[in-house]
Design brief:
The complex is a heterodimer of chains A (about 140) and B (about 600).
Chain A lengths: L1 E5 L9 H11 L10 E4 L8 E4 L8 H5 L5 E4 L4 E4 L9 H5 L4 E3 L4 E3 L9 H5 L5 E5 L2
Antiparallel strand pairs in A: 1-8, 2-3, 4-5, 6-7
Chain B lengths: L8 E6 L4 E6 L2 H7 L2 H12 L13 E4 L14 E6 L6 E6 L3 H7 L4 E5 L6 E6 L2 E6 L8 H12 L4 E4 L2 H4 L7 E3 L2 E3 L4 H7 L2 E7 L10 H16 L4 H7 L4 H7 L21 H5 L2 E5 L9 E8 L2 E6 L3 H7 L8 H14 L3 H16 L21 H10 L3 H5 L2 H9 L8 E2 L2 E2 L9 H9 L12 H4 L15 H18 L12 H12 L5 H21 L11 H5 L13 H12 L9 H6 L3
Parallel strand pairs in B: 1-6, 7-12
Antiparallel strand pairs in B: 1-2, 3-4, 3-6, 4-5, 7-8, 9-12, 10-11, 13-14, 14-15, 16-17
Helix pairs in contact in B: 1-2, 2-19, 2-21, 7-20, 11-13, 12-14, 13-16, 17-19, 19-20, 19-21, 19-23
Classes of the chains: A alpha+beta (about 140), B alpha+beta (about 600).
Chain lengths: ~140, ~600
């Protein structure tokens, strides 16, 4: 099972991860709706950075919260799949997990799917702050 | 708008009536002026009446992005802020990086045109299509960083913020506008904000930008451009030292002005060497979508106080440092931060203090006139008090707040020691050591700007040819060509660093074509750039600027730098005819009918 790891010491806040993710998934550069986002603690100047992305922990809070099975676990690839045809946009998954995103324009729930085994965000990170690791 | 990369509209804000509107962006404007600086040139030239007071109600503030802004084209994070400059009276566009420009695009706007005067201090809040003017009484009087922090508290951390400081509020003609500590920058846009009672701007954009090609094709195209920068041998130096890496190199080459340009070499720069600066670095910072990553955060102590700030940049460390013969690094960090807090341009502030120091050296300025401030060369302790007095326009600060030329005129002496062109103070590249820079300072629309034709790349770094640094030969052509290509960088908008990092003119054309779907050639890049420079020239000519304004201080044209054994000078007046010929301007510097026709003006 694989997941994206984030090294906050290496991140420089260029947000290329969000740009390339949104372009690939939504056909436009739209960082606010990307499956991966970088957040900054604004309490301090140039404050701590953190990464918001599915941690593949598979406690499956998002799946459990979905009343219509629009979200499902893909055993083969180890990622959560989204079926727009079943989704009612109730947004229960957003309440269940902070790593779930949404693109309201296309009515799509945004959860990292590791780009089918070749995560673009990892490839585009200029500082190696993002990596892609296996977990047993 | 048929092209990708643009949102296709400008937001209009009338601060007087509180009304908002939309100005559609025409295909023709995009084709002829591209974005950023090009849009500002065309819009201000068409919209502003001639002869207006830059701090009067008729001046406008134009924020403009370019087609590449926020689209993953490398370094395209920048936004331009255009005004009729209160410092120079010319047209002026200033630029800043960070995340402000992309956020405006994500909010659905290519730019913002701000007109009128608000009756009371306000903050402009752009939340996608929802635009409002909020009362800013609580922000007025606050420094730029406190103001932005209060804005974040009020609006939430997902808004990008920018504000003016006391410098802008008090109409200091070189006051700037800061997003975090990214400053836009020179030419005094902050004073125009202050004159309009516009304290701050906040933006949240939750939309997206569409580009012309299919996503996979676009991502592959951008990756090629990113890889060119990542693989460039110069990139590690930028990554590690930012702009400050240039300082010791340029000094060693007798190209770093010292003591208000009395010489072009500092005896010993070891205390402000980039290796010293690097010791204070705590973390690195990038602008949006940038893989150069020249920014960083420093922590330092001075007089028992602890500070955290963006690392000082090359131009700031020079203007506040060697230009004033101050080589105390924590003092320079502190002065740089103070300029950012009060929101004034570090370069003009430093150069004006250097002028006061030379006036003191020559016995032309007494301590009685300076309210007791000691403008002796190297007095680090005068920096912060002088900066505060400038921003407050308090006592002698009100004189200094006019910039070096304005200060000299106000006291009626010492204009020959004001190292400026058209009222804009010069930068950290010695005109006598890089004559192309001298010619660029002399001929650039808003005065001695170092970023409108960075000929050091061709005269010293070997990036764009192999020109003799000292001769004037070939420089009119070089300066004209680089001014035109730079206008495109400023219009896309990309970062000037890309010039040194392998992005050639044909690649700038590609950076324009990739998101938009246009088919601009390298020749078109020069033509669009020429059009932008020509419109800026027309603006200035109609404001009364003449050939007499395209010059350099006599010191640089007549006297060699003592440290230069060749005793070279930068006699720009001698080549002005040739430069005008290159530009197809007549002997008075007025664009010819042939040129205007060729450019479709």
């Amino acid at each position: 099972m694989h997941y994206i790891t984030f090294d906050k010491e290496k991140c420089v806040y260029c947000e290329m991860c969000s740009g390339v993710c949104s372009l690939s998934k939504l056909g436009q550069i739209k960082p606010s709706a990307a499956c991966i986002k970088i957040a900054r603690d604004t309490a301090q100047s140039f404050g701590q950075l953190s990464c918001v992305v599915c941690d593949m922990s598979h406690e499956r809070a998002c799946i459990d919260a979905c009343p219509v099975e629009a979200l499902s676990y893909d055993e083969q690839t180890g990622v959560v799949r989204f079926d727009a045809g079943l989704c009612t946009m109730c947004e229960s998954c957003l309440d269940a997990c902070p790593n779930v995103g949404i693109d309201r324009e296309s009515e799509r729930i945004m959860i990292c799917d590791l780009c089918d085994g070749d995560p673009l965000c990892v490839k585009w990170c200029p500082e190696g702050a993002l990596s892609w690791e296996g977990r047993s | 708008m048929m092209y990708g990369g643009y949102t296709g509209r400008f937001l209009t804000v009338d601060l007087g009536t509180g009304e908002f509107g939309e100005l559609p962006l025409s295909d023709e404007l995009a084709e002829n002026y591209l974005g950023g600086r090009g849009f500002i040139a065309k819009l201000l030239y068409d919209r502003l009446p001639r002869g207006i007071d830059p701090l009067g109600p008729e001046n406008e503030i134009i924020f403009a992005t370019g087609p590449a802004t926020g689209t993953m084209i490398p370094t395209a994070s920048r936004i331009a802020v255009g005004v009729k400059s209160p410092l120079t009276g010319t047209i002026s566009a200033s630029y800043m990086g960070g995340h402000f420009g992309p956020e405006l695009k994500y909010a659905g706007w290519d730019g913002v045109i701000i007109t009128g005067v608000s009756p009371k201090p306000v903050m402009l809040v752009i939340d996608d299509d929802k635009v409002e003017l909020r009362d800013a009484a609580a922000l007025w009087g606050k420094d730029t960083q406190t103001a932005q922090s209060l804005m974040t508290d009020e609006l939430g951390s997902d808004f990008r913020t920018g504000a003016i400081g006391s410098g802008g509020e008090n109409l200091v003609p070189f006051a700037n506008f800061l997003h975090v500590q990214h400053a836009a920058g020179r030419g005094g846009p902050g004073a125009v904000f202050g004159s309009k009672k516009l304290k701050a701007v906040a933006i949240r954009g939750t939309g997206g930008i569409r580009v012309a090609p299919a996503p996979a094709e676009y991502i592959a195209g951008c990756k090629e451009l990113h890889d060119i920068i990542m693989e460039n041998p110069v990139r590690p130096a930028f990554r590690w030292a930012g702009t400050t890496g240039m300082l010791p190199v340029v000094n060693e080459a007798v190209g770093l002005p010292w003591r208000n340009h009395q010489d072009d070499k500092v005896p010993d720069v070891s205390s402000i060497h980039n290796e010293e600066i690097a010791k204070y670095v705590k973390q690195y910072e990038a602008c949006s979508g940038c893989n150069v990553i020249c920014g960083s955060v420093v922590e330092f102590e001075r007089n028992g106080k602890q500070y955290r700030s963006e690392r000082i940049e090359h131009e700031s460390v020079w203007a506040l440092g060697p230009d004033c013969d101050i080589l105390d690094l924590p003092a320079l960090f502190e002065a740089n931060l103070e300029c950012d807090l009060v929101g004034i341009d570090t370069m003009t502030a430093g150069s004006t203090i250097a002028w006061a120091m030379e006036m003191t050296q020559r016995g032309l300025l007494s301590k009685e006139e300076t309210d007791g401030l000691d403008f002796t060369w190297g007095n680090a302790d005068v920096l912060v008090p002088a900066i505060r007095k400038m921003a407050a326009r308090d006592g002698f600060g009100a004189i200094l707040a006019l910039g070096s030329r304005g200060a000299a005129r106000a006291i009626g002496r010492g204009e020959e020691y004001a190292m400026q062109v058209k009222g804009l103070d010069m930068a950290a590249y010695a005109a006598r050591g890089f004559t192309g820079m001298g010619l660029s300072y002399a001929t650039t629309g808003r005065g001695a700007d170092h970023n409108k034709a960075f000929t050091v790349a061709a005269e010293f770094l070997g990036v764009l040819g192999d020109y003799d640094r000292y001769t004037m030969e070939g420089k009119p052509e070089l300066v004209k060509r680089m001014q035109d290509s730079t206008a495109i960088i400023d219009s896309l908008i990309m970062c000037m660093f890309t010039v040194d990092l392998g992005i050639t003119v044909d690649l700038y054309a590609r950076c324009a074509n990739l998101p938009t779907g246009m088919s601009i050639t390298a020749d078109d890049v020069y033509t669009i750039g020429e059009r932008i420079n020509t419109v800026e020239r027309l603006f200035n000519i109609e404001e009364g600027f003449t050939r007499a304004d395209d010059t350099l201080p006599q010191r640089l044209q007549k006297e060699g730098a003592p440290s230069d054994p060749g005793g070279h000078t930068c006699p720009v007046d001698d080549v002005m005819d040739e430069y005008y010929e290159q530009r197809q301007w007549d002997a008075d510097g007025v664009p010819t009918a042939t040129l205007l026709q060729r450019l479709g003006l």
